[in-house]
Amino acid sequence: MAGIVVIFDFDKTIIDIDSDNWVIDGLGGTALFERLLTTMPWNSAMDAVMKEFHSQGKTIEDIVAILKQVPIHPRVVPAIKAAHSLGQYFSEINTNPGFVDEEGKLRILPYVDFLKAPHGCSNVCPPNMCKGMIIERIQSSLEKNEKIIYLGDGAGDYCPMLKLGPENFVMPRKNFPVWSLISENRDLVKAKIHEWTDGQELEQILLGLIASISEEEKRSISSAQLFSSDCGFQTIAAMHGHEALPRALPVRH
Predict the structure, then answer these.
(1) pLDDT exceeds 60 at position 245
(2) Would you please indicate which residues are annotated as catalytic (active-site) residues?
(3) Which residues are the active-site ones (predicted)?
């Protein structure tokens, strides 16, 4: 499957829920989180709630236990494994950094320090991350003929989808924010659009695209080899063009 880069969003794409809300709801911090969101960005509110959980005696193990209960569609994991040919599944993860401090408290920081060095994107990207800039970096590292398949659901997935050219593919989740943004003007997205609704459809479309791209790549290689063989034959024929043609052998009737 050389030549294909598959990029997944996480929340509501790989898993079927928002992982931040899942932890906060599971540990009883919903009301506090909603109050904090009226005065600060999402990441700052998450960090503040983690501090409050720690003060209440909740541990990293409690958070891990909640995360282990995250629901995931049974077809998503096989789709990811098949898409990545079982090769460690993911080659790169771009996310908001987090760490456990010396007190045992989970800290969550923004991917982009929007107070000191905002990303400056004019699309609908959240202040903590512009996925479009991440896509541009990934694209700059790819070989000429490599193709990207991008899967996502949120408004933050719109910007990276705009960055992809017609040789690439986007898989927006239907009836989610990114789908609404695309539907306002589909012409703005140059990549080929293949929407999906659930894990089963994700698997079918993704593996179908990979098979189609791989088959096209094989045909292209075969055509190139055939063209190369034709050129070689023509060159040899031209080299010997000045020589007399061999006499035809008589055929008995």
Answers:
(1) no
(2) 9, 11
(3) 9 (nucleophile), 11 (proton donor)
